[in-house]
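Q: What structure does this chain adopt?
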Amino acid sequence: MESNLESFTGVMDLRDAMLQELGIYEMYRLMKLYHDWESVVGPMVNGQAKLVHIKPPVIVVEIGHTVWMQEMTMRKPQLLEALCEYYGESIITDIKVQLPRRALQDQLVSGDALDMTPVYEEIIDFQQIVLPSEIVQSIEDSVRVIRHEELRQKVLQTRMEQAKKEFVLQQEHFHQCPTCGRWQSEGSAKVCPQCEYKKYRHIIRTVKGLLKDYPHYKYDQMKAIAPWCTYEWYEVAKEESIYYYLTRLFQGSTDANDMYWATMLITSKSQEELSYEEVVNITNKYRWNETDKMQVK
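A:
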């Protein structure tokens, strides 16, 4: 038996050496997770969550039912720990969960329907662009305060080039984001995607702040104190809040606030409705080490 094990180990070492020689060992080591997925996450998760994409530091899994969306959120700390043990390092630091994508068959078009006209890139010669006299005069007036001649000429040149770019963009019907000033192409939204995302994250942080004060609130209760809050914002804020507290429990926290807030968020029960035994039993499910699990006295 020992000789067979040594023989098998020798074959594994030879395989790894060959892959390293070919320069594809790291890719093989990364993608091997597709084959080992069940052994890493267990049969229950494997039966509900299919690994569909690996792109460190993120993997994407596909679930068959929305019920497992929250379940995967609560299991994320344990799964990330298992992945860290599998790779021997923290290659994967996040898990994205999605529902099955709709088939693209209806979106396909025949080759005859495709526009195969070559696309040519137009190179703009800014030297040939003539700015309106009032813009030129305004720029020249703004740099007169610079006493150093060489520096003034460089600033003037830079300002002129920038003004020409903006002039061309305006002629092509581009517009500036009113928040940050980024140029947007014709037909795009008034506010740029970056500013929209910042606004969205501000809203999520606001909802999370309300959930910190009222962790047991369901959506209808949240709607009563924040009429502007949509169900989507509520769900995202609650998911992120649950993940925060479960991560702390997973890391061994025994803080009563972490335990009660996680339980209230999960069960939608107020602190008065929860018994200490219920809190301990629920939070123990998400502790990784047996030694961290608490006993009901």
